[in-house]
Amino acid sequence: MEQDNNEYQPIENYGVIGDLNTVALVGLNGSIDFMCFPYFDSPTIFAAILDKDKGGYFKITPEPNHTRQKQLYLPDTNVLLTRFLERQGIGEIADFMPVQSDLISKRLIRIVTCVHGHLHFTMECRPRFNYGRTGHTVHRQSDTEILLRSSDGKNSTDLRFSSTIPLNVKDNDIEVDFTLNTGDSVIFILEYLDGSNTKGNKDLRDYASKSLYDTINYWKSWVSRGTYKGRWMETVYRSALVLKLMTSKKHGSIIASPTFGLPEEIGGVRNWDYRYTWIRDASFSVYTLLKLGYKRETRDFIHWVEKQCNEIAEAGSLQLMYRIDGSKELEEQELDHLSGYKNTRPVRIGNAAYNQVQLDIYGELLDAIYLYDKHAEPISYDFWCNLSRQVDWVCDHWHTPDQGIWEVRGGEREFLYSRMMCWVALDRAMKIAKAHSFPLPGKWRKERDKIFISIHEEFWNEDLKCFVQYKGADSVDAATLLMPLVRFIAPKDPRWLSTLKRIEEQLVSDSLVYRYRPDESMEGLTGGEGTFSMCTFWYVECLAKSGQLNKARLCFEKMLGYANHAGLYAEQLGLQGEHLGNFPQAFTHLGLISAALSLDKQFNDQRNKEEEEIENQ
User: Fold this and answer.
1) pLDDT tier at 101 (50, 70, 90 boundaries)?
2) CATH number of the domain to which 106 belongs
3) 20 to 30 A Cα–Cα from 139, which one of 195, 337, 384, 573?
4) Residue 575: phi, psi to the nearest 5?
5) Average per-residue pLDDT in the chain?
6) In the listed set 223, 239, 258, which residue is the last one of a domain according to the structure?
């Protein structure tokens, strides 16, 4: 059955909650329309954002619904409040997932309260297990407790649904209508059962109340560990909280985004699964979190990387992405039974790009390890030996074509960005070796310098006066914006300023930046996409470092205006400012933080220089 596009909430209409195992997307209408359970890369139990009929949802809303809605986070937490402003009263849902230290209990808690007046609510919990492919059975334990079980013949999933009011079962779904007056509340808890928590909670109210305060305290305590005290504190820490939500407490890995299948273009084919750990994205995240003072998160990720390096059989076999537990198989498949967001198909799980060759990941990885080694704690010699094998491999393969940072599917090319990040890999490896007096092969310096010369001679287009996207191209790429950010070239070098001007002419639209101009022969895909928000923040940094501070600040603060009501960003922005792609996107939020830090530094340096000049007068 075809869906009416108007039935779908805009992607930007959602807030996100989580427990460092998984997340849930909560709409302004009080509906949880996406949730993988119990882990980020587990199958969904709710996916109405991808199919209203077959995806499943968990909705609480006033009836009749003529309401105005507001949604906000409690300050410095990932506890989400959704408010309904009706003529007859004000209602509120507090949604959160307790962060358990034992890693065992995985619960979603929803507390519904009538703040003022009286309201009639409906609650519908319609889970659809295994991406909507597997049915389930219902086992009533009491009036207020129901067990849900699903099995595909190989794996089973058991959930417990508990409430402070009696529940009804209809067609294997759970529903109930209830009325609340001022001060009344109802609690709903959805819990994953893993064999260690078979007994239910005797007093849901006490448990929910304690869990709420414990969760608030956990997040506030985490934020307080941050060292950033700059101009955009609230915005920066909201982004940091989002990045933390996408970090696995059990494994230390960091996912690119908690969703899959959300399109980069309505009606297009670029609908990918981002629920995995990209070496590139996670390394950028480590850099950003380290700059904010979150050394524990950087340590946990570096240890996760060290484990992968120990398991790599030979140099050069580092994968582009992994599952959160480090496993390597991410076979891509299409879920043909799901209609997709606003009928945008295909809906994919897995990601075929996992076996692509993308040389830049070695640079991003070595840069993150270099920063960790310098600012957090020294790496071990055994870890260094494993890394050295990878560096030797880069020396032998930096000149080979690959698919590049944007994972193109139109064939391999010699991309500028990949070559530059190979230079970063060798440069940072040399810095680590010198810091520890480790053996430093002369080959590393020789190859690093070859790459430097190659980029300046083979990727510089004298006619266009810019560095081009790949060897022989006449186009620019927003990934080139990282040239001064990784210190490959000075931010005021004439060649760079000329390249920045070309990027502005070709890729910038009112401060928003496209990755590149679509090229079907290069990408191997049809259709278009929106502006790429991470690139916009890179552009802000480049402006700031080149001395264009006022322009940089204007672009940055205009970009802040594109965040949704809860301060969240998807991967891209459409022509009307709508959010596109998977949501929320780690890439975007870490770019925001990095841009804010860079702007702060440039403004502070400018102020200090002005004060020094005044003192010397």
Assistant:
1) low
2) 2.70.98.10
3) 337
4) -65, -25
5) 91
6) 223
